[in-house]
Specification:
The protein is an alpha+beta fold. The protein is built from five helices and five strands. The relative contact order is 0.25.
């Protein structure tokens, strides 16, 4: 994003196209981003096996797979033997918007209503409903969800921070929170900007579990 955020503080933009157009989309799209970071470390955190082994070992399931049983069927990993620890995850994403849509967000005159407030609540709800949307995600208790939306000249940056004290991580909850907030924002402004783009949804940091602290390089 370009320039100083209109709302919120402490958010660092990640170098997206400026000028409010959608011809340039930095990075990969939300559904295709595979930075290699969080996906490499979840084996020791969110998706470990019940025996405490590595991502490549499955004492019960098919060899080499943690979420497939001996018949090849998908299964939810048993994490009951893992210890409870404080776990957090932070994810970010962007919605690229036209200058007209950005101006309406800043003035609070979006025809459909409070777009920023609606998207924020949607993000919180999305985090809580993650196990209903992601088949193998454990339904754990969330102890904190914070969603921030910062308006820039070319769109909105969304940040979700999720916290729990449980046996598995909350990266998926943070990612789902950002994604649902972005979808809700587009729903609020689509009449003004039907070309809005969701991009760069990714994990920025995770803590807790065997891997401890991981931060995007």
């Amino acid at each position: 994003m370009s320039k100083t955020p209109e709302t919120g503080a402490g958010t660092t933009p990640h170098g997206t196209a400026s000028g409010g157009t959608h011809g340039t989309t930095p990075g990969a799209a939300a559904s295709g981003t595979s930075p290699g970071g969080p996906h490499d470390v979840v084996s020791g955190g969110a998706y470990d096996t019940s025996s405490g082994g590595t991502h490549g070992t499955s004492p019960v399931g098919a060899p080499g797979f943690t979420h497939i049983d001996e018949t090849g069927a998908a299964r939810m990993v048993d994490v009951s033997e893992k210890g409870v620890s404080l776990r957090t995850a932070t994810a970010t994403g962007k919605v690229l918007l036209s200058r007209e849509a950005v101006a309406l967000l800043r003035s609070g005159e979006v025809p459909k209503g409070d777009a920023i407030g609606t998207a924020r609540i949607a993000g919180i709800m999305g985090a809580k409903r993650t196990p209903d949307l992601i088949p193998l995600c454990h339904p754990i208790a969330l102890h904190g969800v914070k969603v921030e939306l910062d308006v820039f000249d070319d769109g909105v940056e969304i940040t979700a921070r999720v916290k729990t004290a449980d046996r598995t991580g909350v990266e998926m909850e943070a990612l789902t929170s950002v994604s649902v907030a972005a979808l809700a924002l587009i729903d609020m402004v689509k009449a003004v900007d039907p070309a809005a783009v969701i991009t760069d949804v990714r994990v920025e940091e995770k803590t807790g579990g065997k891997t401890g602290i991981w931060t995007r390089p």
